[in-house]
Structure formats: C-alpha cells, structure tokens
Specification:
Blueprint: E1 12-19, E2 27-33, E3 47-51, E4 57-65, E5 68-77, E6 96-98, H1 111-114, E7 116-118, E8 122-127
Length: about 130
Amino acid sequence: MALGFTVKQESINLSITVKGFDSNEGQAYIAIFNSNETFPTYGKQLKGRIVQISDKRSTVVFHQLTPGNYAAAVYHDLNKNQQLDKNLLGMPTEAYGFSNNARAMFSAPSFNDAKVYCSSDKQITITVK
C-alpha cells in the first residue's frame, strides 16, 4: 500500500571564498566537481563560474546542490586567455588552489584530498599560490 507522499531532497549552497591573489587583474575560474573521474579537469566540472577579483579576493556561491562530496579547483587567469598558463616543464605560472588547500608535489591533488562533505549549506576558503 502506497502512502501517497514523496520525500523532497533538500538542496544546499556551497560558498567558496578565494584569497591570496597577487593582484586584482584578470579573473578567477572557480569550479566544483563531484567525482574523481573528472576532477580537476576544466570543462568537466559539475558547475563553474568566472568571477572578478576585488581586494585580492573572490567569492562565489553554488546553489541548489544535493548533499554529498564536492571538490573545488580555482585558478587566477591573469591574462584572461581562459586557461591555466604553464611553463615549458608543464608547471603552472598562474596562481591556483584546491579545496582543503590540498597540494600535491607534481600534479593536482586527488579528489579525496580536496573533497569536502556538504550535508547543509557550507562555506569554505581556498588560498591560491
């Protein structure tokens, strides 16, 4: 016998503040991912935003997310060419960062190192380097 009602999935908001920019020039690319398979490939993010930098900081809020694990990646597109610039060795020349301020030596950190669990509205801060 069906009871005739459905359980509504609550949505949450994830607010991300990014600090540590060397200047207000350019823009910040901020993206969130919900799987290890896509993290941190730009173009494969769950949601992403391009935002201005003011007072060497940026803030973005991703709305209507389902509770779960998310990892964020950000980079400072200083010259507005819509990509993270790298030197001849493949090392980034523009500032970047990840949730949990996760860092790996010669590659991006893993999704597990950068993930944050969101069961309700959450605010995180990322420092770019």
